[in-house]
Amino acid sequence: MKNIKSRLFTVLVIGLPILLILYLFVFDYNSALVNIDQKRFESIVLNGDAKKITLVTNRNIVEVSLTDEALRKKEYLNDFPNISFINKFEPQFALKVPSAEIFNLNFRDLQSLLPAEKKVYYDSVERMNISDNIWNWVSFIFMILLISSFFIKPGSGSRGIFGVGQSNAKVFDQNHSVGIKFSDVAGLHEAKEEVQELVDFLRDPEKYTRLGAKIPHGLLLVGRPGTGKTLLAKAIAGEAGVSFFSLAGSDFVEMFVGVGASRVRDLFKKAKEKAPAIIFIDELDAIGRARKKNNFYGNNEEHENTLNSLLVEMDGFENNSGIIVIGATNRVEILDQALLRPGRFDRQISIDNPDIKDRKEILELYVNKLKVAKDISLEKLAEQTPGFSGAELANVCNEAALLAGRRKKEEVEFVDFQEAMDRVIGGLEKKNKLISAREKKIVAYHEAGHTLVSWFLKNAQPLLKVTIVPRGIAALGYAQYLPKEQYIIPREQLFDSICVALGGRISEELNFKSQSTGAMNDLQNVTQIAYKIVTYYGMNNNVGLVSFYSEQESFQKPYSEETASMIDEEVRILVKKAYSKARHILIDKKDLLTKLAEALLEKEVLYKEEVEEILGVKCASILE
Fold it and tell me: Is residue 59 located within the same domain as residue 177?
């Protein structure tokens, strides 16, 4: 049956174009017409040999058909030396005319020369000459065949002619190993311990199945971009020594209806053939986002078909023993709840930014690949990179090596790492950015205001350095802090962070008696923190112990207009209180503020030790 279909397809694609071309060449009557001039045409008409005259108006051609008696006359035998079946068809002659109007006038004069009983008339028609468009047809058919040759995969078993329903996952197996082990993944100790059980199950499933345990269907890795989710998934496959199918959620998305679902089925079919196997779907939210409750487009929307197919394959009627699906996303809140229930993604592992211990391990992994100076302290580098993800740490090491190479150094030094961190945090240094002396002075006093307020607030983050070197798109300066490794933030710390953010604007007002646009980012942070204190964390007595936090944005707020007015008023009171506290510090320490700003104008970059020489020892923090 399959061979019959294949032969039929060959006949349709190749045979029909050949028949069409033969038909056009053999049966195109215009190719057999004999061209004549005006004088010959008038002779045929006056002799009464014309049986039918047709004016083709869109081509300005007059076709002449001879009578049966005329075809036997000797004067026409020279026109048809070989009487074939072609010239027995009408017409036989063609006359090219300038236009239909001119032919009409000439023919009227010609008719006046004929007696009434021998008068002839002509018909006017429009006719498409197929032979003129033959190459258009041939080109079109050739293009179809050329495209088909690229997309048709012989023996692929595709559901459609073009094979778009097939999964395009990258496959790593015994022939193409992943080549990544747990030893290649620095940090993530808790996550590696959690997934070790999956590796044991894939290596020796009988160890668990003999006790009645079932293999987990899915593992969901949740975390910020660059934290190592993909690397950990590859390490699981590398440790287990099983086939690994890797693809992104967007690979299922297609404009054709039903293609995504077909690719899901094809993916699981291939995985079953190579079981035990791991299917890794990166950016799972591309196909796993929650289905709409009120779907105005109907239930056949492509996204929902793809998601439904994934749900069935992960927990359908068939036994998927030996297949584990690992998903990775940084937007778990938008995933469909049907995906997250036990039986599909049975486990969720949170991959957070590395702590100081993990950062040291990650840095050690990348620094060992570089030629660095002997005095490089990984502990100090780890301390100065709080909040950095694994990808950002790798970028810092690479940028440091590039900077050292650009300066023709033999080794990568600590100063190169510091400048690389500045690049990652603030962007490239704008050496050619022209800043007036007044603007530079405003920036210096602005950053000095942030630094001084943070220095004399016990709950503010400890300072690492402050700079007025322009970086990035709009940053003319910034202060870098060393936040503590903490998971619970007290209200006092949030309040002091608002004070520190307002320090720059207040310093400008005190020293220049004016305000500038340089505080825009600071005010955005102030607004965000203040509203979170009042509406998210329940830290306001008047609003009460309520939280209006929602993972999904909604046009309808869960509180009344009166409550909204109260929230706005409480935020204003909170910000005003923080403003008053920061202003009091800056007025009280105005001499120190001036010294710090002048030092910034002179050196452009001040580190913690240099700031300490000017301001004294920072007050003790309750977090220490």
Answer: no
- How far apart CA 387 and CA 389 sit, in angstroms, is 6
pLDDT one-digit tens code per residue, 43-91: 888 888 888 888 888 788 888 888 878 777 777 777 765 544 444 566 7
Tell whether 190 and 316 lie within a shared domain: yes
DSSP 8-state symbol, 258? T
pLDDT in tens, 383-409: 888 878 888 888 889 988 998 888 888
| 623: in domain | no
Whether 147 is covered by a domain: the verdict is: yes
- CATH classification at residue 601: 1.20.58.760
Q: Tell me what the mean pLDDT of segment 331-359 comes to.
A: 83
The domain total for the chain is 5
Candidates 63, 447, 508, 570; catalytic one = 447
Instruction: Say if 565 falls within a structural domain.
Output: yes
Distance of alpha carbon 383 from alpha carbon 583, whole angstroms: 31
Active site annotation includes 447: yes
Q: What is the pLDDT of residues 350-361, one digit of tens each?
A: 888 888 888 888
Sign of CA dihedral 237, 242, 247, 249: negative
Rounded to whole angstroms, how far apart are CA atoms 244 and 325?
10
CA separation for the pair 480, 174 (Å, rounded): 48
- Asked whether residue 99 is assigned to any structural domain, the reply reads yes
Residues 123 and 134 grouped into a single domain: no
Tokens of 37: 């001039």
Domain that holds residue 235: 170-351
pTM of the model: 0.63
Span of 199-203, 267-271, 564-568 with lowest mean pLDDT: 199-203
